[in-house]
């Protein structure tokens, strides 16, 4: 199984699910170059993944899914990334929709919802999961073009009450499978709320009145993700297609193992799969092709030896970060507190994607001028992996946030309150001249 290159200790059940992924890879690989050239998601891939049962990969069996976990998702997006990174990325975002079902159900079990709230929360969560298991493609729309200085995602799309449901207005700038997915799972802010307590989730049918596609996204890489985004102008969503319990969104997030909804590392697996593919291609090409005068492989030249050595180091670096994060977020019982897992991911995402980009850069250099083609394996990988540097959040932001976490914690250690006995001692008259360093007065 291709996914075993990342998840090395698969169980028998995980291998069975991974076999479904491997079965679709030839079709994904065959369509990848043309999809990149056209900047269009291959329409046939929806049916292909649906027939393989993969749209319900991480849905529990009780809801009709395959019963996979984060380990399965990471293995799947990694394997797809070796064949068609664009499809892998779009597939990742479909699977993130499962969090809108799994996390609310966990929050119910944890007692985070009142008795009067549970029926609505459970009904919506189960609808998410059963639809995915039935082969419905869900595009998960949260990101917007409006940005704030203090948050990765700022929600300005609004939902206002009307008879029997809600009216949505806004624009979503990022979300794969625009015009492809059956539903856009859309995050919006309830009218009258100014905090995350007012965030709600809505099923928006692809062809609903008032839904339109933004201008075509002519991306540098990951071009076949159908990442155009949508506009919502007075879109009506009935009550039973929405989760509008105030605070439901923030309460469900408390149940995730890592950052945000807890499956973000699978996006880094896409890039690692892409890096592995361009690495394999480079090794095969440079060892097969030989110098005309010596007959020795191109790979034997000192320059190529240096390039291959550095590519290998960077690829192994990506694997180390990714496997460690996967272990942190999937081990039972949890090895580290959630805040530490979050901190590790803020470092890990950028570390993985930067390393993967360096692999592609090495492959691009190793191929020389003749290999520097837009549609070549190295050229596509270089463009696709460049997107990893900016998608979700850049490495620089992750390192900044980790530095703030670390230094804030240290600052808190430096300042504390003294027990009452210490205060009494300090206020008592001094018995005589003090001795010691003058620094004690500082």
Please provide a written account of the structure.
The longest helix is centred in the last third of the chain and has 29 residues, at 302-330. The protein has two domains: 2-253, Butyryl-CoA Dehydrogenase, subunit A, domain 2, CATH 2.40.110.10; 265-412, Butyryl-CoA Dehydrogenase, subunit A, domain 3, CATH 1.20.140.10. It is an alpha+beta fold and 442 residues long. Helix 4 packs antiparallel against helix 8 (265-288), helix 8 (265-288) packs antiparallel against helix 9 and helix 10 (338-366) runs antiparallel to helix 12. It has helices at 12-38, 44-51, 70-83, 85-96, 99-109, 118-133, 248-253, 265-288, 302-330, 338-366, 377-387, 395-414, 420-427; strands spanning 138-141, 158-162, 165-172, 183-190, 199-205, 211-213, 230-238, 242-243. Helix content is 49%, strand content 10%. The radius of gyration is 25 Å and the shape is globular. The model is unreliable at 430-442 (pLDDT under 50).
Overall domain count: 2
Mean model confidence by pLDDT: 90
CATH arch. level architecture of the largest domain: Beta Barrel
Which ranges are low-confidence, i.e. pLDDT below 50, for 5 or more consecutive residues? 430-442
The largest pleated sheet is described as: 8 strands, mixed
The class by helix and strand makeup works out as: alpha+beta
Count of discrete alpha- or pi-helical segments spanning 4 or more residues: 13
The strand count comes to: 8
Strand content: 5-15%
EC number: 1.14.14.21
Pathway: Sulfur metabolism; dibenzothiophene degradation
Main location: cytoplasm
Catalytic activity: dibenzothiophene + FMNH2 + O2 = dibenzothiophene 5-oxide + FMN + H2O + H(+); dibenzothiophene + 2 FMNH2 + 2 O2 = dibenzothiophene 5,5-dioxide + 2 FMN + 2 H2O + 2 H(+); dibenzothiophene 5-oxide + FMNH2 + O2 = dibenzothiophene 5,5-dioxide + FMN + H2O + H(+)
């Amino acid at each position: 199984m291709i996914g075993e290159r990342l998840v090395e200790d698969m169980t028998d059940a995980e291998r069975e699910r991974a076999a479904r992924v491997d079965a679709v890879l030839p079709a994904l690989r065959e369509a990848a170059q043309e999809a990149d050239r056209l900047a269009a998601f291959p329409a046939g891939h929806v049916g292909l993944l649906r027939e393989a049962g993969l749209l319900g990969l991480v849905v529990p069996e009780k809801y009709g899914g395959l019963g996979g976990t984060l380990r399965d998702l990471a293995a799947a997006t990694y394997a797809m990334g070796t064949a068609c990174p664009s499809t892998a990325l779009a597939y990742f975002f479909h699977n993130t929709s499962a969090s809108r079902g799994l996390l609310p159900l966990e929050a119910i079990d944890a007692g985070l919802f009142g008795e009067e709230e549970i029926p609505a929360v459970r009904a919506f969560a189960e609808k998410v999961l059963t639809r995915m298991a039935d082969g419905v493609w869900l595009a998960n729309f949260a990101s917007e073009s409006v940005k704030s200085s203090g948050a990765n995602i700022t929600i300005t799309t609004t939902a206002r009450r009307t008879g029997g449901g809600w009216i949505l207005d806004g624009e979503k700038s990022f979300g794969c499978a625009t015009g492809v997915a059956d539903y856009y799972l859309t995050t919006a802010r309830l009218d009258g709320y100014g905090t995350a307590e007012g965030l709600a989730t809505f099923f928006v049918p692809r062809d609903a009145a008032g839904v339109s596609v933004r201008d075509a996204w002519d991306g540098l890489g990951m071009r076949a993700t159908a990442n155009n985004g949508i506009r919502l102008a007075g879109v009506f969503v009935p009550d039973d297609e929405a989760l509008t319990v105030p605070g439901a969104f923030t309460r469900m997030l408390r149940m995730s193992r890592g950052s945000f909804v807890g499956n973000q590392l699978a996006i880094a697996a896409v890039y690692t799969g892409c890096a592995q593919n361009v690495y394999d291609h480079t090794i095969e090409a440079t060892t097969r092709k030989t110098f005309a005068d010596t007959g020795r492989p191109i790979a034997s030249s000192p320059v190529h030896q240096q390039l291959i050595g550095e590519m290998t180091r960077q690829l192994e670096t990506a694997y180390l970060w990714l496997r460690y994060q996967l272990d942190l977020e999937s081990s039972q019982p949890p090895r580290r507190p959630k805040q530490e897992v979050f901190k590790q991911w803020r470092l890990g995402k950028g570390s993985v994607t930067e390393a993967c980009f360096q692999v592609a850069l090495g492959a691009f250099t190793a191929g020389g001028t003749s290999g520097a083609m837009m549609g070549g394996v190295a050229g596509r990988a270089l463009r696709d992996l460049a997107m990893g540097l900016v998608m979700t959040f850049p490495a620089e932001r992750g390192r900044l946030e980790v530095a703030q976490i670390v230094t804030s914690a240290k600052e808190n250690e430096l300042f504390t309150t003294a027990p009452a006995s210490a205060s009494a001692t300090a206020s008592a008259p001094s018995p005589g001249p003090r001795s010691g360093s003058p620094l004690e007065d500082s």
